[in-house]
């Protein structure tokens, strides 16, 4: 695996094609454009205004400051300075599987269908299990989000119908309320690395 580099107290991760780095002020406009894209946000309650997107980045930064990890900016060096974000978050609501750490991603459309989400998430899982020593990582999405589920399966994550849940931050009856939960145990991941 590529080296872990620490810059100003934050970890930067890399793969042969990708850079996962801390946020810069110059990322805000590109992040807002991604969050305003109705196709990117299809499986979320709504697109975000510039102000709401900037507030989201503030919350991401606060999470990083508190936990030492969070959502990193995904950069494709020499091609796409801001391709989205990928990373780890403490799940911030109560559910049958919490407390837990979630792996998640959101990519701008120019970065779709090129394997970037899977490659970045694989690097982050390596960091989660070897550096943070997490015992489990979860991920979740709505049943219609086939793209994200495909990434979860490529990561070796698995789901069971009995783990499905209703997202407590969405109102009853909301078509996005039902979520599928995917899990990956550290022992399973380690076994996959050996294989």
Q: What's the helix-strand series?
A: EEEHHEEEHEHEEEH
N-C termini distance:
16 Å
> Helix- and strand-based class?
alpha+beta
Mean pLDDT comes to: 93
Unreliable stretches covering 5 or more consecutive residues: none
Number of strands: 10
Gross morphology: globular
Please summarize the sheet with the most strands. Answer: 6 strands, antiparallel
**Range of helix content:** 25-40%
| Number of helices in the DSSP assignment | 5
Strand order of the largest sheet: 1-2-3-4-5-6
Rg, rounded, reads 16 Å
Beta-strand content: 25-35%
Task: Give the SSE map.
Blueprint: E1 5-7, E2 10-14, E3 19-21, H1 28-35, H2 50-67, E4 71-76, E5 80-90, E6 101-107, H3 116-130, E7 136-141, H4 146-154, E8 158-159, E9 165-166, E10 178-185, H5 186-194
Antiparallel strand pairs: 1-2, 2-3, 3-4, 4-5, 5-6, 7-10, 8-10, 9-10
3D structure, described in words:
With 195 residues, this protein is α+β, with helices and mostly antiparallel strands. The protein has five helices and ten strands; from the N terminus they run E-E-E-H-H-E-E-E-H-E-H-E-E-E-H. The chain has helices spanning 28-35, 50-67, 116-130, 146-154, 186-194; strands at residues 5-7, 10-14, 19-21, 71-76, 80-90, 101-107, 136-141, 158-159, 165-166, 178-185. Helix 1 (28-35) crosses helix 2.
